[in-house]
Design brief:
Layout (H helix, E strand, L loop, with lengths): L1 H15 L9 E6 L6 H15 L3 E6 L4 H13 L2 E7 L6 H10 L3 E5 L10 E5 L1 H13 L5 E7 L5 H19 L3 E8 L5 H15 L5 E4 L2 H13 L15 H9 L5 E3 L2 H16 L8 E4 L1 H4 L7 E7 L2 E3 L4 H6 L6 H4 L10
Amino acid sequence: MKRLILFSLAVASLFALPASAADKVKIGLSFSDFATERWPRERDEMTKLLTDAGFDVVSQEANQDPKLQNDQIANMITQGAKVVIVVAQDGDSTAAAVEEAAKKGVKIIAYDRLIKSPKIAAYVSFDNVDVGRNQAKGVLAKVNKGNFVLLGGSPTDNNAHLFRAGQMEVLNPLIKSGQIKVVADQWVENWDAANAKKLMENILTSTGKKFDAVVASNDGTALGALEAMKVAGMAGKVPISGQDATAAGCNSIARGELTVTILKDTRKLTPLATTLAGALAKGQKNLGLKPYKLADPTGDKKFTGTVPCKFLQVFQVTKDNLKKLVVDSGFQSYEGVYKDIPNAPAK
């Protein structure tokens, strides 16, 4: 009898244990790649925030393969994910995965990169047109006439086109007046620094090194271009823009090579996305988002319908405000930004 009582208590205790991971609501994280510096960090931050909130998290990286990413999203849904946060490799291709998810009642959040479907549950990002404006303005503060080179981002990333729209909003009046001439205009596949270096090597040859400024669309492509420009003796002499305020990009600013980067404070974007994911998983409706016509962020009237959006502010970073905006705010470490910099400002 004693053994029977003990066995009964043991069985009862099993049912009293906290729910297992299998019982938790599952949320997926789908990343285009982890070659871009920020994505692994944001994956880790999302995972922690969602896990701490009691969700089960599954994460995958598509190695810049749109088809693989769609397959991975489908697999997450098969595993029971109710919400998937997606950094899309290709905003057009991933729309097919969104359509399939919507049929099954699964919510997709487009994270920082737009997925071109009105079926997404939310699109959270930064003011990407303003990113481009600030890149152009940062370069023009150093050189406002002469021959300019444009290095766009990945052509499959809608953000790259938004950055370009902002850049041209600032540059076009000077181009039309003849004050600026665009002598090279290239797009960097996959935002890859090695691709940017090769493109810049070709530009240096085709222009005979005769250009006065470079408007590049992120730190990775700018630093790739700078590798080629160093060999040509032009690094630090020809202004060039970036974006993301990466540790390497900020260190390049401190060295006097990269001219300007754009701080997009992902410490605000990541919790916004995870909070939205949790709310959607719980079926909440009032999410504090603003509807935008899909034709507006795509710049293409063929896209119909609206998407719920939230856009965060961006900040221009130069050598003058580098420590205040990036280091003192804790976005990057002092050691990372001022590594091997003589006469660096005091901590």
